[in-house]
Each structure stands twice: as structure tokens, then as C-alpha cells.
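Q: What would this chain look like folded?
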Amino acid sequence: MAEPPSSFREIEHTADLGVEVTAATFPALLAASGEALFALIADPRDIHLQEEIIVSASGDEPEELLHAWLCELLARFNIESFVGGKCAIRQITADRVDGTIRGEKLDLDRHKFRTEIKGVTYHEFRVWQEDGLWRARIIFDV
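A: My prediction, written as C-alpha cells:
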């Protein structure tokens, strides 16, 4: 049976920006959460998948690992102006994730910039399993 597709949706939050992400597996949740982060920054339809970077993060449990992964992706955007359109997890252990991000440098003449994300907060941050799916609630500081 085919794995259900991963998805994310924006959620209401008073001052910041939030998403809820759903995926069949934890690696798919990591990938979909990264894609959600980049989709909040720039319209993914405008991102060409012409470059690939390798990204790694460490954490002691699923919530810490997801938080560290997203912080590393945001750092790549802030330092290198790299905006991703597709995330893939190459390897995952209990305390480390290695993945690839396909995308390109942000080009404000071509990309529709949506919002500046300052950080990944711990406020209401949650990872859980429900009905056989992995879910995450993520609030970004904007």
C-alpha cells in the first residue's frame, strides 16, 4: 500500500506564524516540515530545484531533532540565502538526521517573498503520533 502524502496547513496564532504537519513516517515529517518552512518564506512554485545542499542536525528525541533540523534549515536560508523546494531525508538515527535540500539562492526579482522568519520557537512545539500518522505543531517567530 502506498504511503499517504505528507501535508501541512497554516494555523492561526496571535503574533507568530504556525503550521501543523502530517506524515506517514518520522523522516517524512522532517522533510514535510522543512518544505513548510521554505513555503512560508517564498512561493514554492517559483523555486527551481537546481542546487542540492546536505544538511545535518542532532537532537535527543523526536521533538528536539525536528526543532534542530528546522533551525539548521533556517540558518542556511539566513546565511546562504538558500531557499528549498524539496527536502529528502538520507539517514536518520535516534539522535541525528542527515538530509538533502534541493532549491536555489533567493532571487527577489523572481521569487515571491512571503515572510521573514526569525526563529523556530518552542512555544506550543509538539511532535506526536495519532491514528498511525506522525504530526507536528510548529510556531515560527516572525
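The two ends are 39 Å apart (CA to CA).
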